[in-house]
Structure formats: structure tokens, C-alpha cells
Amino acid sequence: MAVSTGKYRFGNDTGWLRLHTERTGLGRRAGHDLLLEATRWSGTAAIGADGQVPSGAVRVEVEVASLTVREGSGGLKPLTDHDREEIVHQLCSGKLLDAHRHPTVTFVSTGFTGGAEGFELTGDLTVAGSTENVTVSGAVGTDDRIRGSATVRQTRWGIKPYSAFLGALKLADDVAVSFDTALIPAG
């Protein structure tokens, strides 16, 4: 691993951050599983001796209004541009993420175990004004890119998963979050 002791930055200019939702309910065939991407996000990391990450050393901030729909699979018909706009509107509204009152989602690490070949990073994730602990699993690839994922159960953060058709179609409570990024030395 080329990542050594020091301070680093990362974000949408060095990689991607995506969310994957799945549909559930009796009407799930009508909806779409969604792949969302944050187009404005950034983070910093401080790597200590022996590749360890001290508490509070990783910070990530995602602009809620930057979420875009990359793709929608399944459903009775393909997603239209109007559908994509409506999905983002619903996500950013006061009913879900309330981007007006809470414009960012933040993560601040509280613990680290493992190493380059596989690690777990625990931390506080703040979504729509509510903070809960989450665990991120990841590894550094042979190309020195850091890849990882976490599962976010929406109801833990007080978010009621989106539903339609009187609840016959709804999003599953768990949202899969994944990332792939390079670390750039911070000057």
C-alpha cells in the first residue's frame, strides 16, 4: 500500500459515492431499484503510525442536493428524466432527507480496526439531523484505491422509507452505500 502516515483528502474529484435502494411490497414490480450517486462530496483522513486511523481522523461530508439518479432497474417502464427529477425532489423534501434544514450528511470516525487488506471503520453518521453509529467495511486495492461499503437502515435515523400506492410499493429500509476513491496528500 502506498498510503503512508499523513493527512489526505478525497471526494467526488477522486472517486465516487453511491447509494443503492431496493423496492419491496406487493407493488414492487411497478417500481425501480435505484442507484443514486452523490456528485458533491468530500472528505479528509489522517493516517497514523503503522497505518492506523485515530478516532476522529476520517471525516466525510455529502451535499444532499447533489444526489442524482444514475440508473433504475426493474419496474414496468424505464425511468424518464421527469421520474429522475421527481425522485430527487422526494429525497430532498422534508418528508425524507429535508435538504433545506439539513443540507449535508456527515460521517466522523470513532474507531478503526484492521489494515490495508481489510478494515472496519466505525463512526457517527448524521442524516437529517439525527446521529447514529455505523460501521464501514473496506480495503485498499492493489491499485491503491480505497473501496468500501456500509448498510444504512433508514428508520434508525428516523427516516420513513418512501412508499406509494397506499404502501403497496415502498423502498426497503436498508440502503447500501458504497465508495471507491483515491487518497490525495493534503498540502
Question: What is this structure, in a nutshell?
Answer:
It comes from Actinocatenispora thailandica. The protein is mainly β. Helix content is 6%, strand content 52%.
- Considering DSSP H and I runs of 4 or more, what fraction of the residues is helical? under 10%
Quaternary class? single chain
**Overall 3D shape:** elongated
At the first level of CATH, what is the class?
Answer: Mainly Beta
Characterize the biggest β-sheet. Answer: 12 strands, antiparallel
Count the DSSP helices.
1
The fraction of residues in strands falls at over 45%
Give the strand line-up of the largest sheet. Answer: 7-4-2-14-11-10-9-8-6-5-1-15
Average pLDDT, all residues: 87
Whole-number tally of structural domains: 1
Question: How far from one another are the termini?
Answer: 20 Å
- Give the SSE string: EEEEEEEHEEEEEEEE
CATH superfamily: Lipid/polyisoprenoid-binding, YceI-like
Family: Belongs to the UPF0312 family.
Protein name: Polyisoprenoid-binding protein
Organism: Actinocatenispora thailandica
Domain Lipid/polyisoprenoid-binding YceI-like: 7-184
Give a verbal description of the structure.
By secondary structure, this protein is mostly beta strands. It has a single domain (6-185), classed as Lipocalin (Beta Barrel), CATH 2.40.128. Helices cover 6% and strands 52% of the residues. The strands form two sheets. It has a twelve-stranded antiparallel beta sheet, covered by helices on one side. The protein has a three-stranded antiparallel beta sheet with strand order 3-13-12, with no helix packed on it. A hairpin with a 2-residue loop joins strand 9 and strand 10. The longest helix has 12 residues, at 81-92. It starts with 5 loop residues before the first strand and ends with a strand.
